[in-house]
Amino acid sequence: MNPKGDKPKSKISASRKLSLKMLLLTRACEDLEREKQEREEEKVRYIGENLPPLQLSGLSLDDLQKLCKQLHSKIDVVDEERYDSESKVGKHNKDIHELKLKIQDLGGKFKKPALRKVRVSADEMMRALLGSKHKGSMDLRANLKSVKKEDGKQDKVLTSEVGDWRKNVEAMSGMEGRKKMFDTAGGAQ
User: Fold this and answer.
1) pTM of the predicted model as reported, rounded to 2 decimal places
2) In sequence order, which ranges of the chain are alpha helices (DSSP H)?
3) Is the four-CA dihedral 75, 76, 77, 78 of positive or negative sign?
4) Spans of the chain, pLDDT less than 50
């Protein structure tokens, strides 16, 4: 580090870094093209080995049927191989994913300390949170509202309302009650 405490200066100039990046990118592109070409050549070679060119001219009907059966059997073998390879690839991908998760779990784990139960009163908690600003003791029950119970007066009022309600229902039942409701609604307009 230099005396100012800043980041150390790079020994490579910006233009040199840019040219190195460009060289790396061109090299990577060339490698990709070469790999693609190699895959195509491998594909052509494999097809040439496993699938000889067909000669259908001059074959009788029985020979054509035998050839079709042979081709179908080869197709079945290739499909089985493809299925097996796909299942292996899927299994390996799943295993890789599980191993990556295990690595992440192992890398991120730490021992949690055993916690102790601590009893703290409200005053001590406020003192710890507020520090010197906390004044006096705090009685939480003092802030509660007090409710006074009234005598049986309310009970009597409730029972009388129930009685009135029943009388009101009997009075309003039938056609007379509906007529009264209609008259009161019409008179309000």
Assistant:
1) 0.35
2) 14-50, 61-108, 122-130, 153-172, 174-188
3) positive
4) 1, 189
Which tokens hold the place of 188?
């309000």
Give residue 26's domain range: 17-51+61-108
**In angstroms, rounded to a whole number, what is the distance separating the alpha carbons of residues 183 and 186?**
5
Task: DSSP letter for 167, please.
Answer: H
Whether 180 and 186 have beta carbons less than 8 Å apart is answered as no
Per-residue confidence (pLDDT) for residue 43, from 0 to 100:
93
Yes or no: say if 15 and 23 are a contact pair by the CB < 8 Å rule.
no
Give the integer Cα–Cα distance in Å for 89 and 112: 38
Cα–Cα distance measured from residue 160 to residue 13, given in angstroms and rounded to the nearest whole number: 98
CATH number of the domain that residue 102 is part of: 1.20.5.350
- Give the tokens for residue 131: 């520090």
